[in-house]
Design a protein that fits this description.
Layout (H helix, E strand, L loop, with lengths): L1 H15 L20 H25 L4 E5 L5 E3 L1 E5 L2 E10 L2 E5 L4 E6 L6 E2 L4 E6 L1 H62 L4 H59 L1 E3 L4 E4 L8 E2 L4 E6 L4 E8 L11 E5 L6 E14 L2 E8 L12 E7 L4 E7 L3 H5 L3 E5 L5 E6 L1 E5 L3 E6 L6 E3 L11 E5 L2
Helix pairs in contact: 3-4
Length: 446
């Protein structure tokens, strides 16, 4: 068995020998190692990365982070000197200059509809008739109260006159009695001195005269007191009557307001009533717009809120013939919605004859005086940088470098340069979206 294993091992040994090898003679062979394609790719990528890093290090050392961009993709503008016109373009909607809302002063039931929606109405023209039985009854009651008060005042005036006449009669009678008694006392005193008249009779005559004189004084005082009190009562009665008359006039006016009329001449709109419909007091039933005179409602970015004021002027240039129509700001609304505020502009001299309600007009609003300034064209870069910095192109045009600047006013065409740029320098005014974080732009031709 051991012999068989030995033979087998010997056979295996002979089988594994290379061809051409002599038996009993040993021969070594060099085995070549195969290269892995994955390792080759790894080392190749690493080499490229090293080159890129070295390139970025060199570029950073020469001016910060750099971005390569084709010059044809950019808008390059030149800094120039010129007259800056301080205005902003605006778009406004044409609306009626005057709008009056038609509201029911008194509520009631719709009895007659005299015009249709959209009709051009004249001032004072009836448009709808309402009925209000409660208001009508109130008017009748006020009329009755006023009539009763007027009757009472007339009765009081009659009483005052009667009292005045009675006092005059009494005083006249007393004057007559005093005059007669005075004459009698004089005769009685003469007769008494002659001994033809007794002392008692003289004293009685003198006492009657003194009584009549005193009674006259009391009657005069009574007349004055009665007259003063009755005059005061008459004044109060007149005041009450006047108040009732005013209330009656108001009630009659309210009753007349049931026949609703147009407050101004214009076009009636929003007028949608039905016969028998009940309209509440103060309910708006439509509006009347001036169909001939217009204003322009304009929404402006809140950025300009502190620079817009009443009375500022603008101009509308009519397309086609280029005729200009001057305007001014009439009203500024205080509310800011969706980052915009609203103003009303009116035509100062004449308005275009061809404009219509609802039309949109392109105009210009002047914010300040024109002046000489350094200018760059208005571009999309402003939204990206806020105007705090810009890319300035080198003299040889091979690169552009980030530079801090200060910009001022801007209109639709130009931006005013306050500091940081010189006349003749070239700057990138197109969007910076792709290279906001870069310090330099490497400008290429392809």
């Amino acid at each position: 068995m051991n012999k068989m294993m030995t033979d087998n091992n010997h056979n295996k040994t002979d089988h594994n020998k290379p061809e051409g090898a002599h038996a009993g003679v040993g021969m070594d062979r060099k085995i070549e190692k195969k290269r892995s394609p994955f390792k080759m790719a790894f080392w190749g990528a690493g080499g490229i990365a090293i080159v890129i890093v070295l390139y970025l290090i060199i570029e950073s050392a020469s001016g910060g982070r750099t971005f390569r961009v084709e010059e044809s993709r950019l808008v390059v503008s030149t800094v120039s000197s010129g007259i800056y016109e301080d205005y902003i373009p605006i778009r406004g909607k044409v609306t009626p200059l005057t709008t009056v809302f038609v509201s029911a002063t008194e509520g009631g039931r719709v009895e007659k509809i005299l015009v249709e929606d959209g009709t051009i109405v004249k001032q004072g023209q009836p448009i709808v008739e309402l009925s209000n039985p409660t208001l009508q009854l109130n008017v009748f009651e006020n009329e009755a109260r006023v009539a009763g008060e007027l009757n009472a005042m007339r009765t009081l005036e009659l009483q005052l006159e009667q009292n005045r006449l009675r006092h005059i009669t009494n005083i006249t009678t007393l004057d007559y009695d005093i005059q007669k008694l005075t004459r009698n006392v004089g005769r009685y005193r003469t007769l008494f001195e002659r001994g033809n008249f007794t002392k008692t009779q003289l004293d009685e005559a003198e006492e009657d005269l003194a009584y009549k004189i005193k009674l006259r004084e009391i009657t005069i005082q009574s007349q004055e007191t009665d007259a003063r009190m009755q005059e005061q009562q008459l004044e109060l009665s007149k005041l009450d009557s006047a108040n009732l008359a005013r209330n009656l006039e108001i009630a009659r006016t309210s009753l007349d307001n049931l026949n609703m009329k147009a407050q101004i001449e214009g076009q009636l709109s929003g007028f949608d009533l039905e016969l028998g419909q009940t309209v509440g007091r103060g309910t708006a039933i439509g509006q009347i717009d001036d169909p001939y005179n217009f204003k322009m409602e304009v929404n402006i970015d809140e950025f300009y809120l502190n620079r817009v004021d009443l009375g500022q002027t603008g101009v509308y240039v009519r397309p086609g013939d280029g005729e200009e129509f001057n305007m001014r700001i009439k009203k500024i609304y205080p509310d800011v919605q969706n980052n915009q505020f609203k103003i009303d502009m009116v035509f100062t001299e004449e308005q275009p004859e061809d404009i219509r309600r609802g039309q949109t007009l392109q105009s210009k609003l002047t914010l300040g005086d024109s002046a000489e300034a350094l200018l760059i064209p208005n571009g999309a870069f402003y939204q990206d940088t806020g105007g705090s910095w810009i890319f300035v192109v080198s003299d040889d045009g091979t690169f552009a470098v980030k530079r801090n600047i200060k910009l001022g006013r801007k209109n639709n065409n130009f931006i005013e340069v306050v500091e940081g740029l010189e006349i003749g320098e070239r700057v990138v005014t197109s969007p910076y979206t792709s290279f906001m974080d870069m310090d330099r732009l490497k400008l290429t031709q392809e």
